[in-house]
Amino acid sequence: MSAAPAAAPPVAPSAARAWLLAARPATLPAAAVPVLVGTAAAMSEGAAFRSPIFAATLLAALLIQVGTNFANDYSDFHRGADHSGRLGPLRVTQSGLLSSAAVRRGIIAAFGAALLLGCYLAWVGGWPIIAIGLLSILAGLAYTGGPWPFGYHGLGDVFVFVFFGIVAVSGTAYLQAGVWSPFALAAAVPVGLLVTNILVVNNLRDLPTDRGAGKRTLAVRLGDRATRAQYVLFSALAYLASAALGFSAPGRRWLLLPWLTLPLAVGLVRRVRGGLAGRDLNPMLGRTGQLLLLFGVLLAAGLLLVGRTHPASSAGA
Question: Which of 58, 76, 141, 153 is deepest in the core (most CB within 10 A)?
Answer without folding.
Answer: 76
